[in-house]
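Researcher: Please predict.
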Amino acid sequence: MTSTTTATYTDLPASYRIPLVVMGAAIPLALANLWIGGIVGAFGLFLMVQAKILTLRFTETALDVYRGDTVIRHFPYAEWQHWEIFWEPVPVLFYFREVNSIHFLPVLFSPPALRACLETHCALAQDPA
């Protein structure tokens, strides 16, 4: 999978690793406790749907989150103070802090493409203040 790039934006390709691992973990959990396994499996299914319907779009000035063709969140880079992708061996969580808020997102997109876009658009925010 490769990212879609035009002159003005980059869309990240979906990555289904985390949802598949969560859904896979639900199987042995269901054998031990049906309710816990069902809850974990439902969460994995939720993550799978989110990976399918959401798009991260890096523009020249902001990170936009799309559901289909609709922008649901807009994060201007000028307001970013720090970003980090947690757990380097297996990236599972993307964190970024803006002037007035913090955000945590599961890594439902290609981790190398995510890192490349962040380093391109938000390199100054990578170093803690």
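Model: The first strand starts at residue 4 and ends at 5.
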